[in-house]
Amino acid sequence: MIVADGWQLHPRLEADTRPVVRWPVCDVRMMEDARYPWLILVPRIADAVEIVDLSEDLQLQLARETARASRALRAVATPDKLNIGALGNVVRQLHVHVLGRFEGDPAWPGPVWGRGVAEPYTDEARSARLQALRAACEAD
Question: How many structural domains compose the chain?
Answer without folding.
Answer: 1
